[in-house]
């Protein structure tokens, strides 16, 4: 196979991924952030601490903490060139880290309800 073609192809794929990462940032602000805020307000009433980990390019992380050793971390990130993936992990005293279930949605079909269900699933676990 022609190495020049491979380099050009890899460059095109990287450009697609970078473009999708930029679009993901806008989705994070418009779709994920407001849902987190609603769950944060609810968590506070249940005496849980919540925090949004400072944004990193291509990653949104949220923590809901019952105590120092009992908390849930949620992660939203871009996948491929049009998918948003959510996964989470729970940390429990005496048990340690427990992996959650991954879920993904196409950006074109991303709805508040899917983001909401990701937060619910993680907190239910």
Features:
single chain; 125 residues; alpha+beta; six-stranded antiparallel β-sheet; 2 helices; 36% strand
Descriptive notes:
The chain is an alpha+beta fold and 125 residues long. The chain has two helices and six strands. Strands 1, 2, 3, 4, 5 and 6 form a six-stranded antiparallel beta sheet that branches. Strand 3 (70-79) and strand 4 form a beta hairpin.
N- and C-termini, Cα separation: 49 Å
Helical content (DSSP H or I, runs of 4+): 40-55%
Report the C-alpha radius of gyration, rounded: 17 Å
Mean pLDDT: 91
Instruction: Give the overall shape, derived from the CA principal axes.
Output: elongated
Query: Count of helical segments?
Result: 2
Q: Which structural class matches the secondary elements?
A: alpha+beta
Largest sheet: 6 strands, antiparallel
Beta-strand level of the residues, as a percent range?
35-45%
Oligomer kind: single chain
What is the H/E order? Answer: HEEEEEEH
Please count the beta strands (DSSP E, at least 2 residues each): 6
- The parts where pLDDT drops under 50 for at least 5 residues are none
């Amino acid at each position: 196979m022609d190495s020049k073609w491979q380099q050009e192809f890899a460059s095109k794929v990287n450009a697609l991924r970078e473009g999708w990462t930029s679009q993901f940032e806008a989705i994070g602000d418009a779709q994920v952030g407001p849902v987190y805020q609603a769950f944060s307000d609810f968590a506070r009433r249940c005496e849980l601490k919540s925090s949004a980990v400072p944004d990193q390019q291509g990653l949104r992380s949220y923590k809901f903490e019952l105590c120092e050793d009992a908390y849930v971390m949620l992660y939203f990130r871009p996948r491929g060139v049009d998918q948003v993936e959510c996964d989470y992990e729970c940390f429990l005293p005496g048990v340690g880290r427990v992996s959650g279930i991954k879920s993904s949605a196409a950006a074109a079909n991303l709805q508040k309800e899917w983001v909401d269900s990701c937060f619910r699933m993680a907190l239910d676990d």
